[in-house]
Amino acid sequence: MFEILAAIGFAISFAWAWLTGGDEVPLTERSQVILIDSGEESALGARAFEEVLSRHRALEGDGADAVREIAARIVKAAEESFGADYDWRTELLQDDAANAFALPGGNIAVLSGLLPVAQNADGLATVIGHEVAHVIARHSAERLTQQRIADLGRLAVAVALGDMDPGTRQAVIGALGIGTQFGILMPFSRVHESEADRIGLVLMAQACFDPREAPELWRRMARAAGDGPPEFMSTHPAPQSRIENLTGWIDEALQAREAAGCPPLS
Ligand SMILES: [Zn+2]
Prior knowledge:
61% of the residues lie in helices and 7% in strands. It is mainly alpha-helical and 266 residues long. It has one domain (1-259). The protein has a three-stranded mixed beta sheet. A two-stranded antiparallel ribbon has the order 1-2. A hairpin with a 6-residue loop joins strand 1 (23-24) and strand 2 (31-32). The longest helix has 22 residues, at 139-160. It is globular and about 65 Å long. Bound molecules: zinc ion.
């Protein structure tokens, strides 16, 4: 009975969000439907980050300081331009994978294997800008909302088959659990990737990094993926057109950079 009421409640909120236009992504102005409370979203992100920290060594020293400084500049740009008010925290973790991620709520992790591929501050800023963009565009919450909508169908089956044995029924309804679906390694969609690339580029430029380095970084990333497991690409699938799109957005980013009062580039 509770499940039916929950499903009906969710369907009504979805219909309401749909009719009223839902939320809007910063910069791209794409409308999105998010039915996850931002407090719940942040709590899930914080829990997942604690789990990550229990399995990785957080590094200290010059490398970690540099990563934190870059992240702080990008976060400041996100707060000033888009009012992104989160509890930000950045860690450099010992891990050979060339990857980085940011969890909903503002926890950012850069894996040490990314440093040789990033090569310089502008390259690192490209990746961190991309990750911060996923957070402020609330991509995880949007994905979770879509997952819950998909689960409504499954739930209807479970309720209709009310005479199913309790174990099986429990397994079907267990699909509503959000723990595994909120796994940090679940890949983003191409729409989300493209959006994170564009917003991230503007953010790193507003933080006075050089957006012209972004296509170079993604070229290095693609080459690194050829040598071993494509770590970043496995969680951030991108269209072949990523480098082309980024090149097309450089003017927008350079204008944002100038408007932010950054010193001219050489
Ligand atoms: Zn991404």
